[in-house]
Amino acid sequence: MGTKGREIVGERADEVIDLLNRALADEWLAYYQYWIGSKIVVGPMKGEVMAELMEHAADELRHADLLVARIMQLGGTPILRPEDWYKLTNCGYEVPNDPQVRKILAQNIKGEQCAINVYNKLLALTGDFDPITNEMVLGILTDEVEHEDDLQALVEDLENI
Ligand code: FE
Ligand code: FE
Ligand code: MG
Q: Looking at the whole model, is its pTM more than 0.90?
């Protein structure tokens, strides 16, 4: 899309692009957190947890796709260097040193709660001037809420074993 057709411009666009890139950093780290977690997790209900983690990893990668598409539509440049994931992330990355299922789930729940917070803020910010980003963010936020719910349900199941 050329500059002339762009629906938001100037500082507002730059601010949105920056926040979308920060969210992109989060999504990549969340993707890896889930992906590596699914490989190393041990303990009760391992199979079920592994399947859920892999599903969520795929969702986070899809979120990264959506963010990059919107960043480029707004005339921005998506993160090109992996070292910038750590510089820009809101939610960080928790090293899964302990592969026990409860620990892995707790780390991912913390990540989802952070993501929900990030996307809620982005939703509020874009509400009055950027309906396209706003709608995309709402879709991602809906997924993150479902992710947290799914993980909490697994924790409950584990408690009832
Ligand atoms: Fe996500
Ligand atoms: Fe998520
Ligand atoms: Mg799920």
A: yes
**Structurally, what CATH architecture does the domain formed by 9-159 represent?**
Up-down Bundle (1.20)
Say which DSSP state 5 is in: G
The ranges assigned to domains in the chain are 9-159
Whether 13 and 75 have beta carbons less than 8 Å apart is answered as yes
Per the prediction, the chain carries an average pLDDT of: 96
**Ligand closest in space to the Cα of 139:** 1
Q: How far is the CA of 18 from the centre of ligand 3 (A)?
A: 28
Find the 32 Cα to ligand 2 centroid distance in Å.
11
Helices 101-126 and 131-159: crossing angle, nearest 10°? 160
The segments of the chain whose pLDDT lies below 50 read 1-2
How far is 125 from 29, CA to CA, in rounded Å? 23
